[in-house]
């Protein structure tokens, strides 16, 4: 049988083989808590024992001839690194798409989530039935109806996979704990690019403040943790999903966000006027706050850009822009940005 | 630059590139629970909503020219698929070792663990300090001392990584739920080989009873769920870690375990006589029960073998045989078994 040269595999079309130099996983960051007392090997109790927790878990892949900067991908609420893997309808996600584009990738389960489940703080997990809420809030449609033209496949198995990508917190959500761990990851791997989704927006900004190895952020629908310089906070924004409040940081910390290029995407079906439809109204205020945030970064000399996809003619995106039906086109937009900023 | 042919990469030495035809992840199995009532899109409560839970999560990789049977790897208690990835000291684990040997691999997070965290039953997660207990129970040594000659690297970072691979249950452990999901995985992927570790031993046997697509099992230190034909149960075995009781199954179900080759490994530092040292005594009874179990399978016409590694001159293995310092040699043993049984 004819064996194609490896170089062919590497310049791969979407269906060609991946050539991976190295892959693996590790934990990084976190803390160790200890219980006073003396450990008894034969009759162990908590006394004298320790717990390693609050770290993150990362799975990485290094392609042949990798570009200089790896991409770290941080999921949103109720999700894990699974967000960036296979799409709900079974196509390649950003993990493999950007590997094919010769970026090393680091997919993270944040502290107290997924495979980084060991938390130093207790929690109770209730089997909360949220499928219908997620359908609305993640803007697939208004349950049980899909939005017209939504970039989300309508096969029942697609929705099944989407719902089963949900995984709970195993400890209280803490943006400080998360950004500490992501910062430790950037200490370990060196300079890189950070992709964030939804709730990870806030920890993403905090990580860039903490660590100069974050060389750019691409944030997909950041949903909370909009940090502004103390004294420059806009008012909280009421919505049908509750108020969205900005969060203060020291002005000198905020200025650290002006050192790097930042790109933010929001998808479709976000109203401009208040509506009682909770799932949509939730994003109306987030998009509005993100616009104020981008203005603040740029006012302080930064390089932030917000792309509302419908404004450039790209319609139908849900809250999961990077796994929507048009995710290859979205990846092209991201690649163009990285090239423009000389990050590839 | 000279590009080596892909065939070279594929017959790879341990440091050569991996050529991967396809990779990705999915959920399979599980159930949907529903709350009575009518869902209100604008003011959502639990009413009328559903929850997808109790599925497993799998990450798969298909090498070029894969062997006919993929390998499914199922972790033990307090672990996730991370068990099979990079070893605590940073070398390749069974995921990548068997990929290099041209097996497709499916790494599973079982229902209610890791990225398959959505449980249909509530639980409370306490930050239980178990590091020292795990050090003893997983037979790295007697805390704080390593066993002489243990196949576990002594750098502090190795132990740090080992402890941080621990992740809690996000719902009650249920061997029936787990084996249902693994069986659904084998329905999806077709015939394959199942590797199990520790607590996964029991769900492994149950899966082989439920699904004829399980063509062989390699079990590393099965720790519980030893199923015997009703009426042929040996007595429970007391130990310093509590009693180990066999579990009854219908004789016709037990006989299904005689259709496939089964290989079981146990490592070193397992005493033959009762001892007060809990971590070691725990495995004394498990090894003894496994011997009775293998005898029962073979008495009914099966093909089960137990290899106590020290008996063949392989010393120092912990409870994590497949990630110990000699894991490449252990993989060679497994490869020889698969070849003998014409499973490769």
Which properties best describe this structure?
AB_hydrolase_1 (chains A, B); disordered N terminus; Rossmann fold; 9 helices; 344 residues; homodimer; two-stranded antiparallel ribbon; alpha/beta
Main sheet of chain A: which strands, in order across? 1-4-6-5-10-11-14-15
**Weakly predicted, low-confidence segments of chain A:** 1-13
Proportion of strand residues of chain A: 15-25%
Q: What is the CATH architecture descriptor of chain A? A: 3-Layer(aba) Sandwich
Morphology of chain A = globular
Count of runs of 4 or more consecutive helical residues of chain A: 9
Count of domains of chain A: 1
Percent of residues in helices of chain A: 25-40%
| The CATH fourth-level homologous superfamily of chain A | Alpha/Beta hydrolase fold, catalytic domain
Mean pLDDT over the residues of chain A: 95
The helix/strand order of chain A is HEEEEEHEEHEEHHEHEEEHEHEH
Structural class of chain A: alpha/beta
Instruction: Describe the main β-sheet of chain A briefly.
Output: 8 strands, mixed
How large is the radius of gyration of chain A?
A: 21 Å
The name of the CATH topology of chain A is: Rossmann fold
Quick one: how many beta strands of chain A? 15
Organism (chains A, B): Phreatobacter stygius
GO molecular function, one term (chains A, B): hydrolase activity
Keywords (chains A, B): Hydrolase
Protein name (chains A, B): Alpha/beta hydrolase
């Amino acid at each position: 049988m004819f064996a194609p040269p490896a170089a062919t595999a590497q310049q791969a079309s979407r269906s060609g083989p991946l050539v991976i130099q190295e892959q693996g996983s590790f934990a990084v960051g976190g803390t160790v808590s200890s219980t006073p007392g003396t450990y008894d090997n034969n009759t162990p109790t908590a006394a004298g024992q320790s717990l390693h927790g609050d770290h993150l878990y990362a799975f990485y892949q290094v392609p042949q001839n990798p570009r200089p900067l790896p991409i770290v991908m941080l999921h949103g609420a109720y999700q894990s690194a699974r967000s960036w893997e296979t799409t709900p309808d079974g196509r390649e996600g950003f993990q493999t798409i950007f590997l094919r584009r010769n970026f090393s990738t680091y997919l993270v389960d944040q502290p107290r989530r997924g495979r980084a489940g060991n938390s130093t703080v207790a929690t109770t997990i209730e089997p909360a039935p949220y499928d219908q809420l997620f359908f609305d809030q993640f803007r697939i449609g208004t349950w049980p109806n899909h939005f017209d033209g939504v970039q989300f496949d309508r096969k029942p198995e697609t929705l099944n996979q989407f719902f089963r990508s949900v995984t709970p917190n195993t400890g209280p959500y803490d943006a400080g704990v998360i950004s500490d761990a992501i910062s430790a990851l950037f200490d370990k791997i060196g300079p890189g690019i950070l992709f964030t989704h939804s709730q990870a927006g806030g920890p993403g900004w905090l990580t860039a403040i903490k660590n100069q190895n974050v060389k750019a952020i691409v944030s997909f629908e950041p949903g909370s943790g909009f940090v502004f310089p103390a004294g420059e906070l806009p008012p909280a924004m009421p919505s049908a999903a509750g108020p969205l409040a900005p969060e203060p940081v020291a002005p000198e910390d905020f200025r650290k966000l002006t050192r790097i290029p930042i790109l933010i995407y929001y998808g479709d079906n976000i109203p401009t006027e208040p509506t009682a439809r909770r799932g949509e109204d939730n994003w109306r205020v987030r998009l509005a706050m993100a616009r104020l945030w981008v203005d603040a970064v740029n006012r302080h000399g930064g390089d932030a850009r917000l792309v509302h996809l419908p404004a450039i003619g790209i319609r139908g995106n849900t809250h999961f822009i990077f796994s929507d039906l048009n995710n290859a086109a979205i990846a092209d937009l991201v690649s163009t940005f990285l090239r423009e900023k000389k990050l590839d």
